[in-house]
Amino acid sequence: MSVLVVGISHNSAPMSLLERVALDEDGIHKLMTDAASFEHVSEATVIATCNRLEVYTEVERFHGSIEQISRLLVDRAGESTEAMLPHLYVHYDDGAISHLFQVAAGLDSMAVGEGQILGQTREALRRGQELGTVGPALNSLFQQALRVGKRTRAETGIDQVAPTLVTAALQETAKVVGDVAGKDVVIVGAGAMAGLATATVRRLGVGRLTVVNRSADRAERLAAQYDGHAAPLGQLGAELARADVVISCTGSAGTVIDVPQLAAARVGSDRPLGLIDLALPHDIDRDVRDLPGVSLVGLAELAELLQGGATGREVLEVRRILGEEVTAFLAARRQASVTPTVVALRSMATNVVDAEMSRLESRLPDLDETTRNEIRHAVRRVADKLLHEPTVRVKELANEQGAVSYAAALAELFALDPEAVDAVTRPIGVEEAGS
Question: Out of 3, 36, 47, 50, which one is annotated catalytic?
Answer without folding.
Answer: 50
